[in-house]
Design goal:
- The chain has 26 helices and 14 strands.
- It has helices at residues 22-25, 35-51, 56-71, 76-81, 94-106, 110-118, 121-125, 134-144, 149-157, 160-165, 167-177, 185-200, 212-216, 233-240, 277-285, 288-298, 311-317, 333-338, 368-377, 400-415, 440-443, 461-472, 498-508, 525-533, 553-562, 576-583, and strands at residues 183-184, 207-211, 220-221, 223-229, 249-252, 256-260, 266-271, 353-357, 382-388, 421-429, 450-452, 479-480, 511-515, 538-541.
- The strands form 3 sheets. It has a 7-stranded parallel beta sheet. Strands 2-4-7-6-5 form a 5-stranded mixed beta sheet, sandwiched between helices. It has a two-stranded antiparallel ribbon with strand order 1-3.
- Helix 22 links the parallel strand 11 (450-452) and strand 12.
- Helix 22 runs parallel beside helix 23 (498-508).
- The chain is globular, with a radius of gyration of 26 Å.
- The model is unreliable at 1-30 (pLDDT under 50).
- The structure holds zinc ion (2 copies).
- Residues 356, 358, 427, 543 line the site of one zinc ion.
Length: 585
């Protein structure tokens, strides 16, 4: 174990202050197996296991572990060589820990090699692309009589896959074949914490603050940015190259550097001092469109004569109100800041309840009572139990009979629960023809409904829009759940004409939700902005399937803030007495 002390002894400063040359790096043998290389092997193993119809939980566990390892700052190789207990890290159980040890100690993984040698040629052909689902690829290979990744790529580019097997299949293949550099925001939050800790600890910077997409709370990020204060910038650059075992330096200047993190996103650091901290924070946070509008007021940021220790001081100097990072996208925030007319963005403490949560009655993991208790502990006044409706068999949809019983049961619970209310709701499927999945006489007994599409995603834009408009004509339709069905980085969602749907919601007194699930965040900030501008209120819902998910409301709040929403536009900032009236059509 030779080079272990590099993150601790303050050494590693390149001679003469020259920062390592990324091209030269390839010519030397890799000193470490990087975390990324270990993660790649686990991801390949997951794919081969899934092709063998292995228990999906096991497959998921390997996939999740691979994602976690890519974020870690500590080198797994070092940890193994130090005989550290790997199971102390979240997501690493005994089996995965021993796989990691085997990879580090032997350079390979027996199980992976065995499965590879046994794999059918079509599965083997995609093992370098672990995000491809072997079952789906098999189907494509069979359909087109092909057997290689090159042919698969060809069928994708020619549009054949989309034409014959649909948009979602084409999307899956495109994502599986493309190196992704994007990451969900909530994953990036973990990465952000790990890098921040590394900067403040191993790199000994005096101050590090996140900027860019993560600070603006963009739902999918490609770059992680920090402004840092240090007296030894080259030393920090050198140490960051040992992040997670090995992290290539992509470019560097005298006060900034970019690294390719093994999780796929870029890491950008910008040096700042006490005097220009605020200026650098502003310069590194805003989206391009924002900075364009901002510099029309301030002049080029790099050329400014005065430096600003805080962002507040910077904005004040130019007669602007402080602009919350979530708003710095280049809509109208600079104009509004100049007129002191920025919105007062919603915050977590404005939330009075959750209007979309599941229980064990359908596919949730906790009872109605437990969900209610967890909501009460968060300081909420109410929680809406909206289990799936009868047609959604894969999510144990609730039968007509059982929903009647549940309504009576909740009435009983409410009779004895002082000050807290369980709302009787349902996540009602919008059927293909736009009708709702329960009869009216049952829907009438609910406090409100969340109505969602869970099937027939392939209808075209006009059909899908008509389906929604028809559903909204039902007087028991209240909130449209996850309006586009998108799953970030996985599938684009079905197509709808959002203008028409917003128009119908306004006309009929229906509402939207921002679904806080980190891979949905549906409505998008742009669509939420559009709805509220048209006068349609929005619920910020978690769609929790267990008590532990209630805190993800923060992701929905981030999204609402990006849409510029104030609490007056949000349904669940209202007490139930007020809300009740809005649900009566
Ligand atoms: Zn749903
Ligand atoms: Zn749901």
């Amino acid at each position: 174990m030779a080079e272990k002390s590099t993150t601790q002894d303050g050494g590693l400063r390149p001679p003469g202050g020259i920062i390592a040359n990324p091209e030269g790096e390839n010519t030397e043998p890799a000193p470490f197996l990087s975390n990324a290389e270990i993660a790649d092997r686990l991801a390949s193993l997951a794919q081969l296991l899934s092709a063998q119809k292995e228990n999906p939980y096991k497959v998921k566990a390997y996939q999740r572990a691979a994602a976690k390892l890519r974020n870690m700052s500590e080198s797994l190789q070092e940890l193994v060589q130090d005989d550290a207990d790997l199971t102390q890290y979240a997501g690493i159980g005994d089996a995965i820990a021993s796989a990691i040890r085997e990879i580090v100690q032997t350079g390979s993984l027996r199980k992976l090699e065995t499965l590879r040698s046994q794999a059918s040629p079509d599965v083997a052909s995609i093992n370098d692309y672990p995000r491809l689902d072997p079952k789906r690829v098999k189907r494509i290979y069979k359909k087109f009589g092909i057997s290689s990744v090159e042919e698969l790529r060809g069928k994708l580019e020619s549009g054949d896959i989309e034409q014959v097997l649909g948009l979602r299949m084409a999307q899956h293949v495109r994502q599986g074949l493309t190196e992704t550099h994007a990451m969900l925001l909530y994953r990036a939050d973990d990465l952000k914490s790990a890098v921040e800790e590394f900067l403040l600890g191993a790199c000994r910077v005096k101050r590090a603050e996140v900027v860019g997409e993560v600070r603006r709370r963009v739902e999918v990020i490609e770059e992680l940015g920090f402004v840092i204060e240090t007296e030894d910038f080259p030393g920090v650059v050198a140490r960051l190259q040992r992040y997670g075992g090995r992290t290539p330096l992509v470019s560097s200047g005298k006060d900034n550097a970019v690294f390719a993190l093994s999780s796929g996103v870029m890491l950008r650091i910008q040096l700042a001092g006490k005097k220009d901290w605020g200026l650098q924070m502003a310069a590194c946070t805003g989206a391009k469109a924002h900075l364009k509008k901002l510099t029309a007021v301030t002049g080029a940021l790099r050329g400014l004569k005065t430096s600003f220790p805080t962002e507040e001081a910077f904005y004040r100097n130019f007669g602007l109100e402080y602009i919350e990072p979530e708003l710095r996208e280049g809509y109208d925030e600079v104009e509004r800041a100049a007129k002191n007319a920025l919105p007062r963005l919603i915050t977590a403490k404005d939330i009075k309840g959750d209007l979309h949560a599941h229980s064990t009655s359908s596919d949730g993991s906790d009872s109605i009572e437990d969900m209610a208790e967890a909501a009460r502990e968060r300081g909420y006044e109410y929680i809406g139990i909206s289990d799936h409706s009868q047609s959604l068999k894969i999510a144990s949809g609730v039968s007509v009979e059982d929903l009647w019983a549940q309504i009576k049961y909740i009435d009983k619970l409410n009779a004895s629960s002082r000050g807290f209310r369980i709302l009787k709701s349902s996540e009602v499927d919008i059927l293909a023809d736009g009708s709702l999945d329960y009869p009216d006489d049952l829907l009438r007994e609910l406090d409100y409904t969340v109505c969602s599409i869970h099937s027939r995603f392939a209808l075209n834009r006009e059909q899908q829009t008509d389906r929604l408009l028809r559903a909204m004509d039902n007087r028991y339709f209240n909130i449209l759940g996850h309006a586009t069905g998108r799953l970030l980085l996985k599938r684009p969602g079905y197509e709808i004409d959002i203008e028409r749907v917003v128009g119908q919601a306004r006309k009929n007194g229906c509402f939207f939700e921002i679904n806080s699930s980190p891979d949905r965040l549906d409505l998008s900030a742009e669509n939420a902005r559009r709805a509220v501008e048209a006068g349609v209120m929005i619920a910020v819902n978690t769609d929790s399937h267990g008590m532990g998910e209630l805190p993800i409301i923060r992701c929905g709040i981030d999204q609402a803030r990006r849409a510029g929403l104030e609490k007056t536009s949000i349904l669940n900032c209202l007490p139930w007495e007020k809300l009740q009236g809005l649900f009566k059509r």
